[in-house]
Each structure stands twice: as C-alpha cells, then as structure tokens.
From TrEMBL:
Organism: Megaselia scalaris (Humpbacked fly)
Name under which the protein is recorded: Gamma-glutamylcyclotransferase AIG2-like domain-containing protein
Domain of life per record: Eukaryota
Pfam hit, one: GGACT
Gene3D superfamilies: Gamma-glutamyl cyclotransferase-like
Stored InterPro entries: AIG2-like_dom (IPR009288), GGCT-like (IPR013024), GGCT-like_sf (IPR036568)
Residue stretches making up the Gamma-glutamylcyclotransferase AIG2-like domain: 11-81
Length: 82
C-alpha cells in the first residue's frame, strides 16, 4: 500500500472558524471551509503528506483554494500547513 502520510498530532488554527458557505447537489450537502474570524479557533488533525498526494487532494477537493497558515500543535510547536 502506498504511503498515505504521517499524522503529526492535533493542531489549532487561530482566528478562523469552520463554516459551510456552499451547497453541492452531488451529495446534497454543504461544503466545509474556514473563514477568518478573530478570536475563534479551528482544531483538527495535522498530517504530513508527499507532494504527489497533495496534488491528488487538490484535484479531489476542487472547490477549495489552498493557502499557507500557521498551526499550533498540542506540543506548542508552530508549523506551516496548507
């Protein structure tokens, strides 16, 4: 099986919130996104993945615009993530 990445831990994106601002008829549901919102935080699992997998995800998740953000891991370390 091909490497699917390495889980780095749980991280927090500060000053953003989770939102559902689009509707997709394909699965009859909302599309999750993050939106700038001072004072709010979004938490999630942080994975390190190969460039080939990033390209594959960009195709699969065609509705999103990828951008670089600073994430604080539970350890306190700050990492740059897409």
């Amino acid at each position: 099986m091909k490497n699917q990445g390495t889980r780095k831990g749980i991280g927090t994106l500060k000053d953003y919130m989770l939102g559902f601002n689009s509707w997709i008829n394909v699965w009859d549901g909302g599309v999750a996104t993050i939106m700038k919102k001072p004072g709010r935080n979004v938490m999630g699992a942080i994975w390190e993945i190969d460039l080939d997998l990033i390209k594959s995800l960009d195709i699969q998740e065609a509705y999103y615009n990828r951008f670089l953000v600073n994430i604080e891991l539970d350890s306190g370390e700050i990492v740059k993530c897409y």
